[in-house]
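Dock thiamine diphosphate; give full complex structure.
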Amino acid sequence: MTLATLKRSDAVPPNETIVRVLRDDLTLDPENDPKLGNDEVLHLYRHMVMTRQLDERLVALQRQGRIGFHVGSLGEEGAILGSAYAMRKGDFLFPCYREFGAALMRGLELQVFVHNMFGNAKDTVLGRQMPDHYTCRRVGWGSISSPVGTQITQAVGFAWGAKIQKKDVATLAYFGDGATSSSDFHSGMNFAGVFKLPTVFFCRNNGWAISVPVERQTASRTFAEKAAAYGIPGVRVDGNDLFAVVATVQKAVERGVRGEGPTLIEAITYRMGGHSTSDDPNRYRGSEMLEPWASRDPIGRVRAYLEKHDLWDGTAEERLIAEVDASFKAAVKVAEHTPPPPLESMFEDVYARPPWHLQEQRQEVLSGPRAPNPHGS
Amino acid sequence: MTLATLKRSDAVPPNETIVRVLRDDLTLDPENDPKLGNDEVLHLYRHMVMTRQLDERLVALQRQGRIGFHVGSLGEEGAILGSAYAMRKGDFLFPCYREFGAALMRGLELQVFVHNMFGNAKDTVLGRQMPDHYTCRRVGWGSISSPVGTQITQAVGFAWGAKIQKKDVATLAYFGDGATSSSDFHSGMNFAGVFKLPTVFFCRNNGWAISVPVERQTASRTFAEKAAAYGIPGVRVDGNDLFAVVATVQKAVERGVRGEGPTLIEAITYRMGGHSTSDDPNRYRGSEMLEPWASRDPIGRVRAYLEKHDLWDGTAEERLIAEVDASFKAAVKVAEHTPPPPLESMFEDVYARPPWHLQEQRQEVLSGPRAPNPHGS
Amino acid sequence: MPQMNMVQAINDGLRTAMRDDSRVVILGEDVGRVGGVFRVTAGLFDEFGDDRVIDTPLSENGIVGSAVGMALYGLVPIVEIQFADFIWPAYDQIVNELSKYRYRSGGEYPAKVVIRAPVGGGIRGGHYHSQHPEAAFIHVPGLKVVCPSSAYDAKGLLLASIADPDPVIFFEPKRVYRAAKGDVPSGPYTVALGSAAIVRSGRHVTVLAYGAMLYEALDAAAKASLQGVEAEVIDLRTLWPVDIQTILESVKRTGRLVVVHEAPRTCGFGAELVSLVVERAFYHLEAPPVRVTGFDTPFPYTLEMEYLPLSHRILPALLEAVKH
Amino acid sequence: MPQMNMVQAINDGLRTAMRDDSRVVILGEDVGRVGGVFRVTAGLFDEFGDDRVIDTPLSENGIVGSAVGMALYGLVPIVEIQFADFIWPAYDQIVNELSKYRYRSGGEYPAKVVIRAPVGGGIRGGHYHSQHPEAAFIHVPGLKVVCPSSAYDAKGLLLASIADPDPVIFFEPKRVYRAAKGDVPSGPYTVALGSAAIVRSGRHVTVLAYGAMLYEALDAAAKASLQGVEAEVIDLRTLWPVDIQTILESVKRTGRLVVVHEAPRTCGFGAELVSLVVERAFYHLEAPPVRVTGFDTPFPYTLEMEYLPLSHRILPALLEAVKH
Ligand SMILES: Cc1ncc(C[n+]2csc(CCOP(=O)(O)OP(=O)(O)O)c2C)c(N)n1
Ligand SMILES: Cc1ncc(C[n+]2csc(CCOP(=O)(O)OP(=O)(O)O)c2C)c(N)n1
Ligand SMILES: [Mg+2]
Ligand SMILES: [Mg+2]
């Protein structure tokens, strides 16, 4: 087998068995139409645009050396925002690392997010984790971790905990195509199947796990059919079709809430950028690979729909972008003027109360010399 | 969900989609007939009987406190011996822990096996592992380990190694229904699928993982359909039908050797005894559960077939049992008169050559006092 | 007061906690109807139902990952790993997730899980039913690690572990599961985490031990006493955070240290104990500290009694220590 | 002689081994066309093809399990774990399988695998791109553990690790991947496993360090020298089996010991080094040994330079040691 013969990720997959709602003629297929009100579509559209705008600006900040890292969602905004929108208030989402746009839409304040990108004293996680590893329990948002897949079993356990306590809480686990190879995918799907837990397994199939294409990830024709191994339904949805994503996730939540168990959703989309600011995709894929996907941009499709219905135009777009720009700049300014987390914060939250050895180590740092160049490498 | 509503393991599964060859009227279904010669059937039958006889005797030895442990194969002899028989000389089998009968048939000497059961100085693994954890590379048999599932990825890697070296070697991984929940099952199946490796995944679905019934193991209707998640074929076979097992594994090997990749085989059988000598199955299952399976005993079915063809009778059976009895008794006698492994063997084979710290520790033991009661707990 | 062995005491502790707090649930392999392969959860399935005493699929990774999720929700899951040897598939969830959750979320998501696992050798378990892997957990910031040696402590430490806000790895010395018997009060009581117990006083040498090896240390101390050497034997009970005060106070009196554990010597917990003592009581030490431990080999089956740091190996260390 | 940095030297070592022995194969995530996220395998895919430089699915468990199987067959697989932080899903295969294979099979199935993983902090990686987990491997009988600090040693130790009959965990200090530059001979050569290097001689205090922290130790030693304290700095290179002779010989001369490592202090490798020295050179020690290490917290992002045991924390330890 050579990589040259591996072609699955190069092409937009064929239509069959994929849930699609927004047709090329910009009408909605009534079969799966989630019946969103205009205000809802506008709300989602605004957040998709905001997400993309922020992505660009965060990458720029990283290039300027003002933040250390960013992992963006270029091209995947439809899958990310549509799925988050379909989850109810009170439900919990367990993020991978590429879904900040969804957190903001759920209610994470931009300023809080930006503090996290700078890892400063106002970052709710106190600069302990890399950028994009924020948290927000208040809006039903989990804590982000880098190890691929670990959130999947946790999303299952969270739903299970609620079920044992007879509470109506569904969970959604975000993960990529690469994560389907992880142990946690296998265990999480299996446990959720056996115990019929209301978890939505939301696989963003964006074609790549860093440089590894989906053909190298699995020999199964689709990711959705992996559901069969666990006795649960698997659905493929056009991840670049906002309406289809909302509808599909809504149905999965309803199913879970009815006690019928979990659903695996494969949202077919494409990672239009590098894996993260650390990655140069030109090393392993030609830009011609992006072409078939560019014409199916999730944002462009909704904008065309909105414009067709006279709900949006160039002026509105400009105004939105200016708004995002202003609020982001303001947030960055505040964040850059916020000091780094205090030294002693390094020793807090390891345990509920620092035991003797951490008290000693804290003292050691506080009374010892400072690192000469503490915030550069 | 209560255990009372979980019934799948109580009943012999229905006929549909299960490979069967030996019909109730003792004719062979030509569709899947492996066309075994009479001598081959006799050979396999003898080994099935021998396996069962040894199982009984080993359990008795354990009850008498003469060996520490045994994990038997009562009721699973058809699946175990049929599958091993279908593998070619030069192929490698990666055992779970319940397949000693297959190792003996492949050429492991009874005496070597019995030395292992006693963990003495002549045990090829020098009493380092529990009973039933022997090894025999010479006959294409792996090294047995207790952690469930770990042999699965290794069987895949072994076949992969051979393939890279362009050698015609297939592998078979034995594992139970419980092991399908392990991380190694998931990774092993996935890797073998992606790299099209000639591995036969042989799942002995014997209904139980210690006290946990298959319904608690997975929500998928069958274990075979888990193959779909990895883009490989999955087959269900009547594990108590020797002929069907041989035929199914042979086809899987042929497929692998042709370069078409792995196959998952679910052999439906039943664990007629406890999990091991440490287990009392009466705590969690009623003896009535055994009834439907007793009438489909894999040995009884082959014996009926042989008797119908005048290839076997009570005298032959008695002679065989007497032979097994004599050779086993002789082997036990030798093993019981063999001393325990020498002290210094504890420090060998940790590394190819003992580094300084192990040389020191060996010296410490050799020159220090002996444990007062070294071979009792 | 009822007499119980350690299995019964832990069982009683689990029952007490579950009656007291509906957030407490148990999950693991074979913990349900059959009550665990060592019968530690016997009867709990019948009393609390399979919503709270949960037989899971065979996946330690899935068990601990799910338990972390339950804990994030607000339950207090108690995981049983059938043998500590089988905890490794869950190690990623323990090291990268459970232990770091409170920290990495700035306190928003504390994850309170108790992981119980039988440990240790001497039951003819070979490589895979004998490991005593505390070092790999003590090294991980965010975890607490406990290992009782008596029935009384087992129940009290278990209830303290369940009540404690941090994740606790609770290792049960299976060699003395039935042999360690004693008075165990019914109803709730705790033995504080982080407090060691001086189980034999002596002035010549301090012996640190825990779990099943405590009894070996005591046996050796009794024999040493016949030869005029009085060993002070300390049962650590909580391995981390260890009771540094009790240890230092004793070593400063005796001037000599012997550490006993079953795990392989190299990078075992003994190394940490020795280091803590030499860093803090260097000028009180009159002899080099001694580690009496399992060897740096996989745990052997037939020769297990030669592998374990039993009394016959501890005694010479005690006698030797006082020679200096 | 060509000048190389550590990434280039390891790359050159891999190429040398693969040209020399067709049994050597590489597997891991992104090791193929893209040449690894740190470019350590750059160009190897083109030279040796994807039969021998294999991009795998995202499963460390699958990678190591498969590598063990390949090794049982007779290949010499070199696994790349993208960051050491992600090795834990493979820990069961490493602890229960790889390390025990030769032993448990009575020598019939030696399993020769080299596992390479970038380790350590200082590259703004936070919890999950900074861990330095050597202790969890040194504690496991059957493994050898290596951590080079220079480009020359990296290639030589890698080739020695590949040639060695035992499984080797090869940790690469990514903070100095590009900074550690020097002359590196082309073609094959080895740096023997188990031999440390005295990289700076001194008579007042012995400093044990490895990987990226070696440079911090050297920096601190240079500064101490200005204050009249001459530190002997030993680069351990092979962490286990450690070069006990070189260490003891040095400490017996200096009478003082400082150990430096990035990993959390408790139950870290420093504890083992301190214990080995006090057990064997007790009467030569004139001061308590000191550990300068990472703290017992998860690895922090913003404050990483305060977390790491850099020169500014090593220097006071050196000066303090000689006060006694
Ligand atoms: C267990 C583990 N192994 C490796 C990595 C390094 N890594 C980070 S992201 C990534 C690829 C993930 O791909 P996918 O799951 O498809 O998600 P995507 O980034 O495409 O959204 C890898 C290999 C990791 N974070 N965790
Ligand atoms: C990783 C791991 N977890 C738990 C165990 C304890 N254990 C030994 S066998 C077994 C059940 C295995 O069931 P199955 O895979 O169906 O095989 P069977 O015994 O039925 O042949 C369990 C839980 C183990 N050996 N390894
Ligand atoms: Mg992806
Ligand atoms: Mg079974």
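Observed: Chain D has a mean pLDDT of 98.
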